[in-house]
Amino acid sequence: MLAVVCVLTATVLVLVQARMRRHVRTDLVSTLRAESAVYAEIENARHGQLEQSAALIEQQPFLKALMSTNDQITVEDGSASILETSRTDLLALENSDGEILGFHARSDAVPLTVAKTLMRGSSGHQDWWFAGGHLYDVSLRPIVAGSNGNERVLGRMALGRELSRQAILQSAVFGKVAFAIERSGAVLLSSLPANAWGEFENSLHQSAAEPATIQEIDFEGERYLDSYVELPGDHPVRLYSFQSFDQATNFVRSLNQLLLIVGSIVIVSGAFFLFILSRQITRPLEQLAIGARQLELGDFEFKFHVGGKDEVADLTRAFEHMRNSVRQSRETLVRSARLEAVGRLAGGIAHDFNNLVMIIKGYSDLLLDSATAATRPQIEEIKKAGDRASGLTRQLLAFSRKQILEPQVFDLNQTVRNMVKMLRVLIGEDVELITNLSEEIGRIEADPGQLEQVIMNLAVNARDAMPSGGKLIIETSAVRLDEAYARTYSEVTPGPYILLKVSDSGCGMPQEILKHIFEPFFTTKQPGKGTGLGLATVYGIVKQSNGHTSVYSEPGIGTTFKIYLPSLEKSARTVTHLNISGAPMGQGTILLVEDEDALRKLAAESLKKFGYTVVQASNGHEALELAVSYQGEIAMVVTDVVMPRMSGHELVEHLKKTRSNIAVIFMSGYTETARTENINLGANAILLNKPFSNEALARKISEILTTSKPTVRAATASK
């Protein structure tokens, strides 16, 4: 039995270590590729600035006058100040015959003869020059005099910016990562130790990897992963970035060693009690072993039959709790993939092992209560090892940077008012900012700074959706979400809420995009224009503040985000149309048109309970067919505004031709202000904003039918 336990423990440790290493390698690969891509963008931007400087210098009449003399002394002396004013590191001026007339460099290690050779070897507009241990990003431009067809080439200018080791290390991208720049198998510049350059050059001759390939290189017994990007030019160079795989997995080895020590002590101590307690713990441990194997196979639904109140039963319950925690952690890892990769991994591991450490420490305390003089020292060693393991898990949790909010009770309206001036600057002059803040809302408890971040992220998204200008509408109101709404959205608790609505008249989004907008790194913007974290951040902050988020959008109309935050005050003043009860019974036939099946069925069932006959249609065309074929009276049509193929407004226009006196209620996920600005329903249109309660719909129908009392006739078949 003891041998089996030892083998199982060693196997689990080996599997855990292998899996951790795979995770660490995957995360390092993602980090390396991201760092290489970011630095490539930085270099492209720097070269763009160099190109602009070269273009400005080439257009100066002073330079053209110098080059027109074709005199080396004149050009050499006259161009000396260009290097300082342009804040560059190298300048070479060549006449049309290929002779260097002027050459200046901040470093004395670049002789004129080398500059002539480099100048002759560069025929394009961009190149990389390496001379005297210095690497330069060079922009080459022709110097042309004259205009309107009388142009004359006076020569060429080469303007260079030195790329130094210090500049790369200070770029923040490679602050903690080694790098090397090579060309044709030779290292030109690197932060690696000098004795590692040769090993790296040898590895280059043995491999012809593509940029997307991640290589593993051994430097003096330490393993590194590397990735590179190519910096373009007549003689391009490759920028390699390295991260130590061994350093990244040090915590795995330390954790495994500590757990191995703890496990060994537990096994030795447990052997002392094994014979006496075997009959009492054999069956529960067998069940626990089966559960562990099922967990390894990915079965998180294995049922544990736990009985009694002894330590083994408590251990089984703790294992079940740990399994549930592991399942939740795995689901969280899947949803938050690519976010803080190494930190996420460390936090997940620390969370899981902290549960194990707590179990070990807890049972150590229980065993100490009944320990003998002979066993007490061993048990105390178990407890000490558990304390050390607990300290290590706390370090891992600190490394993972778990977000802690600082909630305060505050007025949401005041927060919005304080941000108006900043938002107007943020969205620009082409976008009109409209605020509609209800004075009847209560207070909320949340982190004000995080909520300001939510509003800013939504405003930025709205601005980007309106490149040609438009309207950004921010509204607040007090609402009550009832049980019917909570059944549709399981994470919602019925009760009073403060509703923050942010609407725009932008391009809108189709359903295919709406499904993914809250996913991390999902973006429809061009590369470099967005991170894909704005809406993911909004979703996370609202969820952590016990709130709820919904979004309505249609292409060509706009988008409305609704943020529901729990209200701290209950007052009759905060009650709106979403909190209507006691609707009277009614009669008559209602034509209900809604493209969402679940919402349509829910509304139909509720209206039937209030005494109405309901005819259901899933779109405008189906509703028109039912209006023609239905032989009874139709008192009212209740229709969604935005539907596929035919809008609610178009449907009503067609219905009025055959049933001119029919009453109408529109339903929409857009706010009243957004509807007025973006959707032409008419000044007298009756609109119910989603979500609304069943009682609210029934009361509105009763109110309209009682007031208007329309006389409605059934349409004939000929119509």
Q: Looking at this structure, what is the CATH superfamily of the largest domain?
A: Histidine kinase-like ATPase, C-terminal domain
CATH topology group of the largest domain: Heat Shock Protein 90
Rg (C-alpha, Å): 36 Å
- Count of domains: 4
Residue fraction in strands: 15-25%
Mean pLDDT: 78
Low-confidence stretches: 334-343, 394-404, 570-581, 671-678, 710-719
Task: Describe, in short, the structure shown.
With 719 residues, the chain is of the alpha+beta class.
Would you give an account of this structure?
There is one protein chain. The chain is of the alpha+beta class. It has four domains: 105 residues, LuxQ periplasmic domain, N-terminal subdomain (Beta-Lactamase, 2-Layer Sandwich), CATH 3.30.450.220; 152 residues, no CATH class; 167 residues, 2-Layer Sandwich (Heat Shock Protein 90), CATH 3.30.565.10; 120 residues, Rossmann fold, CATH 3.40.50. The protein contains 22 helices and 22 strands. Strands 2-1-5-4-3 form a five-stranded antiparallel beta sheet, sandwiched between helices. Strand 16 and strand 17 form a beta hairpin.
List the topology elements:
Elements: H1 2-58, H2 61-69, H3 72-78, H4 80-86, E1 90-95, E2 100-105, H5 112-121, E3 126-131, E4 134-145, E5 152-162, H6 165-169, E6 178-183, E7 186-190, H7 194-205, E8 215-219, E9 222-231, E10 237-244, H8 245-248, H9 250-296, H10 311-335, H11 341-369, H12 376-400, E11 408-410, H13 412-427, E12 431-437, E13 444-446, H14 448-464, E14 470-481, H15 483-488, E15 495-504, H16 511-514, H17 534-544, E16 548-554, E17 558-566, E18 589-593, H18 597-609, E19 613-617, H19 620-629, E20 636-640, H20 648-658, E21 663-668, H21 672-678, E22 687-689, H22 694-708
Parallel strand pairs: 12-14, 18-19, 18-20, 20-21, 21-22
Antiparallel strand pairs: 1-2, 1-5, 3-4, 4-5, 6-7, 6-10, 8-9, 9-10, 11-13, 14-15, 15-17, 16-17
Helix pairs in contact: 1-9, 9-10, 9-12, 10-11, 11-12, 13-14, 14-17, 19-20
